[in-house]
Amino acid sequence: MRQVPRRGLLGAVVGALGLTATARAQGLFDKRIIFNVARGEVEAVRRDLLKGENPNQVDERRTPLLITAASRGHLAIVDMLLKAGAAVDGVDADQRTALMWAAERDDIDVAQLLLARNPRVNLQDRQGVTALIAAARRGAAEIVRALLARKADPNIADFTGRTALSHAMRGNRQAIASMLRAAGGRE
């Protein structure tokens, strides 16, 4: 009976890196659309999508195009990607959605575009942060209001045990704290 060697953690990491290197060698991460989205090249992204590029592609860090555009405030590109069928609830390596990035940036225009596509507003990232917590922490009152209107749960806590209200109080953001209390939020 021949024994098969067991791959340890190091072997798994080397294997994963090998797959990434193989994918890069095959040109899977060399798509122009990835760079055009990152640079905010609206017309170039439009051309790429018209040529049939997939709006749900990811870069080598596994970040979807929609998140790249949202995290950089490229409103027109976010709109194009959504119209082309980009998944509104796609996540990056930290499990953050485009809506979380818009909340963190206090970008109400991007947030409204995303909210119009009915995303799951209570998703949590690897730290347990929701879009509502990110907005409360940032002081993004308009986004907090929009999220509450979409039934975001003000009582979800991150992995430190803090809710959106706790973050608002900690940042001395009284107007946001009042909105969250009115929506039934607790510390």
Please describe what this structure looks like.
- The structure is a single chain.
- With 187 residues, the protein is mainly α.
- It has 2 domains: 28-87, Serine Threonine Protein Phosphatase 5, Tetratricopeptide repeat, CATH 1.25.40.20; 96-187, Alpha Horseshoe (Serine Threonine Protein Phosphatase 5, Tetratricopeptide repeat), CATH 1.25.40.
- It is built from 11 helices and no strands.
- It has helices at residues 9-25, 32-39, 42-50, 65-71, 75-83, 98-105, 108-115, 131-138, 141-149, 164-170, 174-182.
- Helix 4 packs antiparallel against helix 5 (75-83), helix 5 (75-83) runs parallel beside helix 7 (108-115) and helix 6 (98-105) packs antiparallel against helix 7.
- The chain is elongated.
- The model is unreliable at 1-29 (pLDDT under 50).
Element layout with pairings:
Layout: H1 9-25, H2 32-39, H3 42-50, H4 65-71, H5 75-83, H6 98-105, H7 108-115, H8 131-138, H9 141-149, H10 164-170, H11 174-182
Helix pairs in contact: 2-3, 3-5, 4-5, 4-6, 5-7, 6-7, 6-8, 7-9, 8-9, 8-10, 9-11, 10-11
**What average pLDDT do the residues reach?**
88
CATH architecture of the largest domain: Alpha Horseshoe
The third-level CATH topology of the largest domain is Serine Threonine Protein Phosphatase 5, Tetratricopeptide repeat
Helices and strands, in order, run as: HHHHHHHHHHH
* Computed Rg: 19 Å
Helix coverage percent of residues?
A: 40-55%
The CATH class of the largest domain turns out to be Mainly Alpha
Q: Major beta sheet, specifics?
A: none
**Protein structure class:** mainly alpha
Strand fraction equals under 5%
Which spans have pLDDT < 50 for at least 5 consecutive residues?
1-29
CATH superfamily of the largest domain: Ankyrin repeat-containing domain
Tally the beta strands.
Answer: 0
N-to-C terminal Cα separation, in Å? Answer: 61 Å
Broad shape: elongated
Number of helices: 11
Q: What is the domain total for the residues?
A: 2
